[in-house]
Amino acid sequence: MRLPAGVRFIERDWLSSNMVLVAEPDGGATLIDTGYVKHSALAVALVEHALGQVGAQRLSRILNTHLHSDHCGGNAALVSRFGCEVLVPAGSFDDVQRWDTQALSYDGTAQRCARFEAGGVLVPGESITMGEVPWQIYSAPGHDPKSLVFYCAPHRLLVSADVLWKNGFGVIFPELVGESGFAEQAEMLDLIARLDVDTVLPGHGPAFADPNTVVETARRRLASLRADPVRNARYAMKVMIKYLLLDVEEIEEVVLAERVAGASVLRSAAELLELSVGAAFDWAVDELVAQGALRRLNRRLFNV
Question: Relative to the CA of 161, which of 8, 18, 148, 266 has its CA 20 to 30 Å away?
Answer without folding.
Answer: 266
